[in-house]
Structure formats: structure tokens, C-alpha cells
Specification:
- The complex is a heterodimer.
- By secondary structure, chain A is mainly alpha-helical.
- In chain A, the strands form two sheets. A two-stranded antiparallel sheet of chain A has the order 1-2. In chain A, strands 3-4 form a two-stranded antiparallel ribbon.
- Helix content of chain A is about 60%, strand content about 5%.
- Chain B is an all-alpha fold.
- Chain B has one domain (about 50-255).
- The termini of chain B are far apart.
- The chains are: A mainly alpha, B mainly alpha.
- Chains A and B meet through helix 2, strand 2 and helix 4 of A and helix 1, strand 2, helix 9 and helix 10 of B.
């Protein structure tokens, strides 16, 4: 045991992990996306910012979402890469949320309220920062923002202009005020458009690219951050001698580490937690085997039904007969 | 895993780059759009025609002689003669009838010649056209005679086609050119809506094509279109209408020239 602990582990973890590289790459995508979502191009091909109002609300949503997730997982980033991933995800959420909100007016508040309700909901899967429902809502709000910007670029300050049947067919000017109904009107100031007007095709390209980059970057950083946390747990387990570490990993499979609360814990607590979990699972395993050995009920079952299948599965747990040629059998 | 690992330096560099991008992404949101500086607000260099809009207004006759020294020497005799006859119009003739007469033909030649000259010549040509609009009758009336409005519209159209783009950054011509496009909108709208029932489509379509050419689409406004949007937002907004692109122009024209409606009331 002492000799095994002194020797290097056969599957040593390299110092530079793939997860860190992915975190950096995802953060770069989020940075590029945030930059693209923050600019608009006017008719003179001049660049200007989209303002801080929507971004501030996006930041609030990101903060709420982060707090809710931290409450759920009870973990915090414990090293530089983890903290950078958390920062990237926070900013990514703020960029995406701010990028899909209308730039001002009642539309922005209504959209903010809808996103806030989703952010306050308990996440169904704590490993994901954005649920699929929220993602689809973000896409819908983004399309809505593109639509109102398009309408504004054409100097149409309403969502839709619906012709009233019969009245709109009559060629009388005095009927003009009642021939069409404007749905969802807004003003140029609410949209924050530049004085020279917005160049919609270029702005559309920038915002779409920004949204896609941010969403993809968020996805990459989420996966990488999870992998990075798994690497931490893996490192701690592999401070044990290799055979023991292998047994621990059989008792605590890697895909359960996050749900078992091993992510985001300080190293000392992580060790204690692993120790407790190993003890608990080993004890459970032992109790189960003992209970099985004592059970006499299975003899009355048939092999072709449910109870028979259970019996067959449990039979596999019976200790195999010792190999007569093994050193333990022939001391 | 080890095979796909990147060097720590590369990872740190990418993280630093991402951090810089985060900062830029935050800062760029606060950048303000470039303010529109009107050409007439720029500091003037050398002598210039003061308050050019007065020469397009009702009291133009009081100052029109000032233009004599600005018009090119080779155009000056003709300019003086035509300005004299145009500003002497009293009987409110029908626009096309007068243009087809001897004085009117001379007027047409003079306006065309001035339009091809210097910017001061072009301004003088516009002064003549405005005076004609003020002193002749182009209102269609109940019988729907739109030919007079069409001829006046053609004069304005020719001037705008030649000078609108150049005028956008010209402190002398920018306001007169915008006034010209407002009057053009009113004249063509009158021709379009002349029939008691229905519309004349030809003048409307012609006007729409010209406005699209000189002001651009709403998403790609020309410099002239931007100047129009900065000074007359209702008119510029109206250009994007699916139903009546001229309504905004007429509304703004009614503010600037309330009596210039083609019945000589504004003389």
C-alpha cells in the first residue's frame, strides 16, 4: 500500500487540461459575440453602441440565474479557470439577455419580466445554466427584436399595420385614419436608433453572429466548466493508490459526481465528502450481499417470469468459488 | 485527453484575449453615434449669399436683385431679363400656358442653362422656379387639369436630379434643395390626387422613383435623405410609407409655404 502510494499513478492527469482550453475558447466566443451584440451600424456605415439599459437588465437576469444555480449546486469556483468560466458564463448570459431585449420602452420591461420568471424557476438540470425553454424564449425575443428594428429601419413605428376589410378598399382620403389599425406602436427613441437611421442588413448580420457566438460559447463553457470540475474530483481521487482509486471510482461513477455535490467544493470538504460517500456505498453494498446470502425466498421462483429474472440477476452477486491454484487457496 | 491538450501559454493567451474582448464588449455599448453637423452650421469661408431661403419665400422680390452679382457673367444678361419677366407676372397665367409662350420658353432655356452652371447659378434657377410656382396657376381644379402641375414638377425634378446629391453638404444649397423637394412632393401629390374619384398613378410613380433615387431607401439613406430626415422627419418618415410617400412632404411644405398651393395666393 505504501509502495503503491509512492509510485506515480499509471493514468496520471496532465497538468494542462483539455477543459481549460475549452473554457478559454468558449470565453473567446462569448467575448466576440458580446462585442457584436453591442454595436449597430447607421446609414453612414458609422458604428455606435446599443446602450447600457438593456445590458443592465441582462446583467440582472444573469445575476439572478447565477444565484439560483449556486443555491442549487452549493458550489463555487475554486481555482482560476473555474472562476474565469463562471465570469464568462455570467457575461455570456448578460450579453445574450441584453441582446434580445428591446432597447427601451414597455416592450423591454415586459420581456424582462418574462425572462425573470424563467430565471427564478428552479433549474431542472443543475448542470445547465440555460434550460431549453429559456433558450427558445431567448430565440423568440431575438427574432422579435430583429423585427422591430427592421420596422424602425423602414420608419414603420408599429409591429403590424392591419387593413380593415372594406374600409381599406375605398379610395377616399378622409377614411385614411380608420382604414388601418396599428398594432404595437413604438417610437424611434425606444429603439435607440442612431440619428442617421440604422443599416438593417449589416446590423442584422452583426447581431445574428453575436447571438450565435454567445449561445455557442455559453454551451462550450458550460460543458468545459463541468469537465473542469470533474477533473478536480478526479485529481483528488487519484491521490489515492491506483487500485484504491479505481475502486472508489467504481463506487462513485464520474457521471454522478455533480449530482453527489462534489463540484465546487474546497479540497478538504471534497475529501471528507468522498470519504463519507465511499463509506456509505460500501456499507450499503455489504448489507445487500449479507441480506442476499440470508434470503431463502428465491428458490420458489420460476426462471421464465419477473421473479426468475430478478433471481438470475442476483445470482451473479454470489461469491465465486476460490481458484484452487491461486496463492490465497494454496498458502 | 493528453493528446488534445494545448500548451498552458496558449490557453492563458486566449483567456487574456477573451478578457480584453469582454472589456471592449462592455465599453462599445456606451459609444455614441456621430452627431449630424449641418453644412450651414459649419464656419463660413468668404462671402456668401445670406439667408438663401428668403429668396424662395414670398418676399423674394425684395432681394432677388442681389443675385445679379453672384450669377456667372455669361448668364447674367439672360438671368436679368428672365428674372424681370418672371417677377413681373401679375395675371396668374396657367403654368403650362405661360411656359409654352415666348417668355416661358426663354424662362425654360435660362433655367436649364443656370442649372448647368455654378452653385450660385443653380440657386438662381431655383429662385426662378419658385417664383413661377408662386405666380402661375397649377392647381388642377374640378376638371382635373394636371398638366400644369406636371410641368412645374418636371422643372423641380430636373433641378433636384442635378443638384440634390451635391446640395447635401453645401451650406448654400442644402436648405433650398430641401424646400424644393417639399414643394415637389406637394405639386406631384396635387397631380396624383386631382381626379375626384381615384388617382392619377403616373405622377405618383414618377415622384416615388425620383425620391427613391435622391433620398435612398430607409435602410440606406443617401446624404440628401439624411439631411431631409434631420430637418423634416415627418417628410422622411413618410418616404417609407407603403401607401402615400408624398403625404409627409406635403405636410412639411404646408408648414413652410402655407399659401403656395397653385392658385397665386402667395404672390
Amino acid at each position: 500500500m505504501t509502495e503503491a502510494a509512492a509510485s506515480p499513478a499509471p493514468h496520471s492527469v496532465p497538468a494542462e487540461r483539455h477543459a481549460e482550453w475549452l473554457i478559454a475558447l468558449g470565453a473567446l466566443m462569448i467575448g466576440c459575440g458580446g462585442l457584436l451584440l453591442g454595436v449597430q451600424v447607421d446609414a453612414n456605415r458609422g458604428f455606435s453602441g446599443t446602450g447600457y439599459a438593456a445590458f443592465a437588465l441582462g446583467g440582472t437576469l444573469a445575476l439572478v440565474s447565477t444565484i439560483m444555480r449556486a443555491r442549487e449546486t452549493q458550489g463555487l469556483p475554486r481555482d482560476g479557470s473555474g472562476a474565469f468560466a463562471a465570469l464568462a458564463v455570467f457575461l455570456g448570459l448578460a450579453f445574450v439577455s441584453g441582446g434580445v431585449l428591446a432597447p427601451g420602452g414597455p416592450w423591454m420591461i415586459a420581456e424582462f419580466a418574462a425572462l425573470l420568471v424563467l430565471a427564478l424557476r428552479r433549474p431542472r438540470d443543475s448542470s445547465r445554466w440555460i434550460g431549453s425553454g429559456t433558450l427558445w424564449l431567448l430565440v423568440a425575443l431575438f427574432l422579435f427584436r430583429l423585427w422591430i428594428t427592421y420596422q424602425g429601419s423602414r420608419n414603420h413605428w408599429q409591429l403590424l399595420s392591419v387593413p380593415i376589410p372594406i374600409l381599406s378598399w375605398l379610395p377616399f382620403d378622409f377614411l385614411a385614419p380608420i382604414q388601418y389599425v396599428a398594432l404595437g406602436s413604438f417610437t424611434p427613441w425606444e429603439l435607440g436608433l442612431p440619428p442617421a437611421g440604422v443599416d438593417f442588413p449589416i446590423t442584422l448580420g452583426l447581431w445574428s453572429g453575436g447571438f450565435t457566438l454567445c449561445a455557442a460559447g455559453l454551451f462550450v463553457v458550460q460543458l468545459a466548466a463541468r469537465e473542469h470540475q470533474n477533473d478536480r474530483v478526479h485529481d483528488v481521487i487519484h491521490t489515492l493508490p491506483a487500485p484504491v482509486a479505481g475502486l472508489v471510482e467504481r463506487l462513485l461513477p464520474e457521471d454522478e459526481w455533480e449530482t453527489l455535490g462534489l463540484h465546487g467544493q474546497p479540497t478538504r470538504l471534497l475529501c471528507k465528502r468522498i470519504e463519507a460517500l465511499v463509506r456509505e456505498r460500501a456499507q450499503r453494498q455489504r448489507e445487500f450481499v449479507q441480506a442476499f446470502e440470508r434470503a431463502q425466498l428465491l428458490g420458489s421462483t420460476r426462471a421464465d417470469d419477473f421473479s426468475g429474472a430478478i433471481q438470475a440477476a442476483l445470482t451473479e452477486l454470489e461469491p465465486r468459488p476460490a481458484n484452487p491454484r491461486s496463492p490465497e487457496a494454496n498458502p | 485527453m493528453a493528446g488534445s491538450s494545448k500548451s498552458p501559454t496558449a490557453t492563458r493567451v486566449v483567456m487574456a484575449l477573451a478578457g480584453v474582448l469582454f472589456v471592449f464588449a462592455l465599453l462599445v455599448r456606451g459609444s455614441k453615434p456621430a452627431a449630424i453637423v449641418r453644412p450651414e452650421d459649419k464656419p463660413s469661408e468668404g462671402p456668401q449669399i445670406e439667408q438663401p431661403l428668403q429668396l424662395l419665400a414670398r418676399g423674394a422680390a425684395l432681394r432677388v436683385a442681389e443675385l445679379d452679382r453672384w450669377v456667372s457673367k455669361d448668364q447674367e444678361p439672360e438671368w436679368k431679363a428672365v428674372r424681370g419677366s418672371t417677377f413681373a407676372l401679375k395675371e396668374c397665367p396657367a403654368t403650362m400656358d405661360w411656359l409654352d409662350g415666348a417668355e416661358g420658353q426663354r424662362f425654360g432655356r435660362c433655367v436649364a442653362a443656370l442649372r448647368g452652371g455654378t452653385r450660385e447659378d443653380a440657386f438662381a434657377a431655383l429662385v426662378l422656379v419658385f417664383q413661377l410656382a408662386r405666380a402661375s396657376e397649377w392647381k388642377p381644379g374640378l376638371r382635373g387639369h394636371i398638366e400644369h402641375a406636371e410641368r412645374l414638377g418636371a422643372l423641380l425634378e430636373g433641378w433636384l436630379r442635378s443638384w440634390s446629391a451635391r446640395s447635401a453638404s453645401d451650406p448654400l444649397l442644402v436648405e433650398p434643395a430641401l424646400s424644393a423637394v417639399l414643394l415637389y412632393g406637394r405639386v406631384m401629390r396635387v397631380a396624383w390626387r386631382a381626379p375626384v374619384l381615384g388617382y392619377n398613378k403616373a405622377p405618383y410613380e414618377r415622384a416615388r422613383a425620383l425620391l427613391l433615387e435622391i433620398a435612398g431607401e430607409s435602410a440606406h439613406r443617401s446624404e440628401f435623405g439624411q439631411a431631409l430626415a434631420a430637418r423634416h422627419p415627418v417628410a422622411a418618415r413618410g418616404l417609407g410609407s407603403d401607401f402615400d410617400v408624398l403625404e409627409g412632404l406635403e405636410e412639411e411644405c404646408a408648414v413652410l409655404y402655407p399659401k403656395l398651393v397653385g392658385d397665386c395666393e402667395d404672390r
